[in-house]
Structure formats: structure tokens, C-alpha cells
Design a protein that fits this description.
This protein is mainly alpha-helical. It has helices at about 1-15, 25-45, 60-85, 90-115, 120-145, 155-185. About 80% of the residues lie in helices and about 0% in strands.
Amino acid sequence: MQTRSRQSNCIKVLACETAIMTWKTILSFILGATILTLLSAWSIEANLLPLATEIDYKSAELSFIKIWVQLALAIGVLLPGVAFLVWMRHPKVRTVFGFYLLVLGVQIASEQIFSRVFFSSLLAIVGTLYTTFRVWQLWQGKYLFSLNAESDLVRDRVARGLLWLLLLFWSANLIFVLPIAWLTII
């Protein structure tokens, strides 16, 4: 009796924890972030949102950001990309890192498009929205992998370690880098 209840709870947890890892959720977020960014651009242009149109980094800030971008490419793109390619046949890895890389790619494209079509200050808005969502995605992925925490497979241990590294990196990005951008446009 207790085993059946425990299995039922595990199934409920699995269903709840993987809800973020669906096409519907990802596409809904991308649509919402795009609409919010467009509304922000319109509000800034109409002087309803008192933000500068250009990001004006100081020399030290620009140097720091250049180094941070290189770290982001290595930690945030290269490592999960390799994990995705190496373990593509495993559904859990494919789901977590596939959606992660998709959202990251859409963020990079959005930043490029919005900063060229409108103005560079939208980088702060897009970066904040997508990085916050990415941390949430990674947290959900961590739970998905923790459901099989007893798994001694090297793949699962490496994936869990990579998820923690990504969580720490993107959380640090929210704490340290994004305030630099926001302070230059406020």
C-alpha cells in the first residue's frame, strides 16, 4: 500500500517538474518575452518608460563584460552543447539541454534583432527576462535529474554537475552583470 502511494507521488512530482520542459511552455515564454520587449521599446520611444536608449558602459565595465561574454560562451554554450550532442539519445538529457540551448539561441537572436531594429538598452530587458527564465529552466532540470539521484551512471552525475554549474553561473549573471547594464540605462 505504501509503495503504491509512493509511486503515485513520484509520478505526480515527475509530471509537475517536467511541466516547464514542454514546447508549449517554452514557446509561450518566448512569445511573452517578445511582446514585453516590444512594449518596452514602444514605451521608451514614446517617453513613457524613462530608460536611456543606449547602454553607455565605462571602460572597466566594458572590459569586465567582454571577459564575462567569453565565460558565457564556454560555460553556457559549449559545455551544454557538448553534453547535448554526446548524450542526445537519452531523453532526459535531450529534453533539459535541448530546451536550454533553444531558449539561449532565441535570446541571442532577440538581443541582436532588438538592439539593431530599436536600441541597445533593450539588451538589459531581454537579458533579464531570458536569464531569469533560464535559471528557472535549470532548476526544473535539476529536479528532473534528482528523481533518479540514486542513479550511479556517470552521464547522470555529469549532467547534474553541469546543471549546478550553469545554475551558479547564470545566477551570478543576474546578480552581477545585469545590474551593470540596468544602471547605465536608468
